Amino acid sequence: MPHTEHAPIAPMLRRDTQSIMLDELRLDSGAIIAPVTVAYETWGRLDATRDNVVLVCHALTGDSHAADLETPDDPRAGWWNPLIGPGRAFDTDRFFVVCANVIGGCYGSSGPTSPHPEDGRPYGMRFPLVSIGDIVRAQRFLLERLGVLRLALVAGGSIGGLQALEWTVAFPDFVERAVILAAGARLSAQGIALNEIGRRAIFADPRWNGGDYPADRGPDDGLAIARMAAMLSYTSADDLAQRFGRSPASRPTSEPSLGGAFDVESYLQYQGLKLVRRFDANSYLLLTRAMDCYDLAEQHATDLEALRRVRAQVLTIGISSDWLFPKEQVRAIAEGILAAGGQALYREIDSRLGHDAFLKEWQHLETLLRPFVADHFVARGPP
C-alpha cells in the first residue's frame, strides 16, 4: 500500500467545539497529565434544576460532533445526528445534550497530538496510557465545570458503551438512566487479537518512528491496515456478502501483479484511507488499548459485585449479527443488574449490519430509545 500525503490531523476542531482546562488529571496508572484539555459540544439548554442532561459517549475514532442541527437530516453530518435534536429521541427541547472528546484522542482533548508542557512538541507516545475510568473521570470534571448536578441519562455504543457502563458503576448516584449499546463487561480475546493486529501494523510502518512523527507524515500505511482489519469486526459476513460478494472493483489492486481487485478489497482500502486523513495513529494505539484493558470486575470481586453498585435504570441493546460484542454479552449486563437487584431491560436490533448497526439502524434505534428516554420504563428481564 503506497504512502499517501495528507493534511495534518491536529487540531481537528469544529467551529462549535468548546473546551475546558483542568490543572491535572491523575490516571489509574498513577501517571498525571497536567494540564488537561477536554473538548466538547452541547445542544439544548441546561435548565434551572441542572439535571436535564444527556451525556452521549462516542466510539473509538469518533469525536464530540454527535449532532449537526444545521443539517438535521444528514446522518453523516453527526454520528448520532438522526437521534439528537428537537422532537427526536434525545430531544433538545427537553434535554441539554453533551458530548466530550475522549482524552487520548485527537479532536481537541489532551492526547498524543497535544503539546507536551516541557518542550512544546507533541506528546506522541510520551502520552500515558489511559483507561475507560480515566476517560469517564475527565467527563465528570467537565460536567462539574458546566454546573451539572446529575445526569438524566448517559448513552453510548461500543467503547462509548463501555463508558456508559463505567458511569453507572463509578458514579452510581450521579446517573438516573443509562443506555449501553453493543458493549459488554469486557472485550473478548478475539477482539483484543484484532486490535493487536492493527497495532502491529502501525508499529511496523517505518514512519511510526516510535511514535515521534510529524503531523503530516505519520504511519499512514500502518494506520490504514489497522482500520481495514477493524472494519471486519464492525460488519458481518452476511453484510459483506450482500454488499460486495465477489464482484470486481472498478479500479486495480494496490499491487498490479496480483491482477484485478475485488470490490470488497477496494472498499477496505477506501476505509483505511479515510481514517488516515482524519485520525492520529498514536491515539489509535492508546484508545484500542484502553478498550482491551477495560474489565468491569477489575476493582471488584466479580461482575455481580460491580453491578450491585448500579442505581440507574439501564437499557442494554444488543445487535443480532455483532461478533465484536456478541448479543449474549450485552444481555448479560442486563441480567447481572437484575440479579443484583437493580432495574434493567435488554432489547435487540435484528440487523445484518453487525457491530456498526448502532451507527446505522436509525429506525430501530429510535423505536427502542424513545420510550426509555421518555421515562416509560418497565424493569423486566430479557424476552
Structure description:
With 383 residues, this protein is α/β, with parallel strands linked by helices. It has ten helices and 14 strands. The chain has helices at 132-145, 159-170, 189-204, 220-234, 237-243, 263-276, 281-293, 303-307, 327-339, 362-373; strands at 18-22, 25-26, 32-33, 36-43, 53-57, 84-85, 90-91, 96-100, 151-157, 177-181, 248-252, 260-262, 313-319, 343-349. The strands form four sheets. Strands 1-4-8-5-9-10-13-14 form an eight-stranded mixed sheet, with helices on both faces. Strands 2-3 form a two-stranded antiparallel ribbon. Helix 1 (132-145) crosses helix 2 (159-170) and helix 4 packs across helix 6 (263-276). The longest helix has 16 residues, at 189-204. The chain is globular. The model is unreliable at 1-11 and 378-383 (pLDDT under 50).
Features:
two-stranded antiparallel sheet, 32% helix, alpha/beta, Rna Polymerase Sigma Factor, Chain: A
Please render the helix and strand layout as text:
Layout: E1 18-22, E2 25-26, E3 32-33, E4 36-43, E5 53-57, E6 84-85, E7 90-91, E8 96-100, H1 132-145, E9 151-157, H2 159-170, E10 177-181, H3 189-204, H4 220-234, H5 237-243, E11 248-252, E12 260-262, H6 263-276, H7 281-293, H8 303-307, E13 313-319, H9 327-339, E14 343-349, H10 362-373
Parallel strand pairs: 5-8, 5-9, 6-7, 9-10, 10-13, 13-14
Antiparallel strand pairs: 1-4, 2-3, 4-8, 11-12
Helix pairs in contact: 1-2, 3-4, 3-7, 4-6
How much is the average pLDDT? 93
Which strand order spans the largest sheet, edge to edge or round the barrel? 1-4-8-5-9-10-13-14
Along the chain, the helix and strand elements come as: EEEEEEEEHEHEHHHEEHHHEHEH
Percent of residues in helices comes to 25-40%
* Radius of gyration, whole Å: 20 Å
Remind me, CATH topology of the largest domain? Rossmann fold
Low-confidence region ranges: 1-11, 378-383
Overall CATH architecture of the largest domain: 3-Layer(aba) Sandwich
Largest sheet: 8 strands, mixed
Estimate what percentage of residues fall within beta strands: 15-25%
Quickly count the domains.
2
| Counted beta strands | 14
Structure annotation, total helices: 10
Which structural class best describes the helix and strand composition? alpha/beta
Report, as a whole number of angstroms, the end-to-end distance.
47 Å
The CATH superfamily of the largest domain is known as Alpha/Beta hydrolase fold, catalytic domain
| Shape annotation | globular
CATH class of the largest domain: Alpha Beta
